[in-house]
Write a structure and sequence with these properties.
The protein contains 11 helices and 14 strands. It is α/β, with parallel strands linked by helices.
């Protein structure tokens, strides 16, 4: 019988309080944009952030034999710490591997969490401390303690925190794997990512395309920035800075600065202008990095010609997804799924389903070469 010990953190979780969910939005988007900028530009990384990067960075060898130093990064508001983040961190802590000295390590220990609200540090530390993740205060008084309703000002304001978080990591000189917290990880995504040469990798809709060749254009389909990898190069850092600035300018002009719809435009503009020699992009295969907008069982690309839309299968008679599809999954992301309470339920459900159909989390992870830290 398979061990059920991994289920204990889920069974201990309490339901999210609903009172916080109705906290009102209390700011304008131009005011929020201004709060991120000084007279000379976007705020620099804080001392807490730079120290967190030093502690969290993971030195690894990529498929081309190059050394990379990576941190995982995420953002969270107060509401997320009541349930969803515990599930997310449990997921990352289950992705274990051998460190350079032979000791056991896991992905949660390499995660930096930027806290969006002013009062979230203690709650973040209480959750993250169990897993070795690091909380960094990036509080902004404009954000409330509640859930951020879709297309509210706070919803659009998330983009300022996300892009600034990514930029801070790149500025300190490490590659950034940014993860939305409404997903569960089943096998280590880093070996797959490290086998690709593109400087920027993002997930996208159910469509059959290659992701191994560096490009200056993404497939002309929808992207999803719940999982993005950025290599720490000068041009990538510049591109993300321009992304931040564009979001701010949209807000100043009275528009809605949505990070999701602006991402592809900015990276394609830079990559096409400077050529793939200086910055390249690619979209990860959707059968390996599915998300809920595709449907309940991700994306089936079997017998689908290249550059055609994939199939979006339903669950089988026993209410699970087909094993052949699930074996390909590195993670499952839960956008298009309602509020954080419902996302958390789905994250638990998919974790249980994976264990039932495939086996223990991390059992299908590929090997990864972890290097010793450079002498300071």
């Amino acid at each position: 019988m398979k061990s059920a010990a991994w289920l204990l953190p889920f069974l201990a979780l309490m339901a999210i309080p609903t009172a916080l969910a109705d906290a009102p939005t209390n700011f304008s988007l131009p005011d929020l944009a201004k709060s991120f900028w000084t007279e000379t530009g976007l705020k620099f990384p804080s001392k807490a952030l730079t120290e967190a990067v030093t502690r969290a960075k993971l030195p690894v060898l990529d498929a081309a034999g190059h050394r990379r130093e990576i941190v995982l990064m995420a953002i969270a508001n107060e509401f997320a710490f009541h349930r969803m983040f515990d599930i997310f961190l449990t997921s990352l802590s289950n992705i274990t591997f051998k460190g350079a000295g032979g000791s056991e390590d896991n992905l949660a220990r390499h995660l930096i969490i930027n806290i969006m609200t002013n009062t979230g540090t203690d709650n973040c530390t209480a959750v993250a401390g169990k897993y070795g993740a690091i909380c960094v205060p990036y509080g902004n008084s404009h954000f409330t303690l509640g859930t951020f309703h879709a297309f509210s000002n706070e919803f659009y304001g998330i983009g300022f925190i996300k892009t600034a978080t990514i930029l801070d990591g790149l500025t300190v000189g490490v590659d950034v794997l940014f993860l939305d917290a409404d997903q569960v990880v089943f096998k280590n995504p880093l070996p797959y990512i490290l086998a690709r040469e593109a400087d920027v990798l993002v997930t996208g809709d159910c469509h059959n395309h290659l992701d191994s060749a560096p490009m200056d254009r993404l497939p002309q389909i929808g992207n999803n920035i719940g999982l993005i990898y950025f290599r720490a190069t000068a041009m990538v850092t510049r591109a993300v800075y321009n992304w931040c600035l564009w979001l701010a300018n949209i807000a100043y002009l009275g528009g809605k600065p949505w990070d999701q719809t602006t991402f592809a435009v900015i990276v394609e503009w830079v990559a096409a202008d400077v050529t793939v020699r200086h910055m390249s992009i690619a979209m990860l295969r959707p059968d390996k990095f599915p998300f809920m907008c595709m449907g309940p069982c991700g994306c089936d690309l079997r017998n689908v010609p290249y550059y055609h839309w994939g199939k979006q299968p339903r669950r089988t008679a026993d209410n699970t997804c087909e094993p052949a599809l699930m074996r390909e999954w590195y993670c499952y992301h839960m956008p298009c799924s309602g509020d954080m309470n419902n996302k958390a339920k789905l994250m638990e459900e998919y974790t249980v389903m994976y264990h039932k159909v495939i086996g223990p989390i991390n059992s299908l992870s590929e090997p990864m070469t972890v290097l010793r830290p450079l002498a300071s």
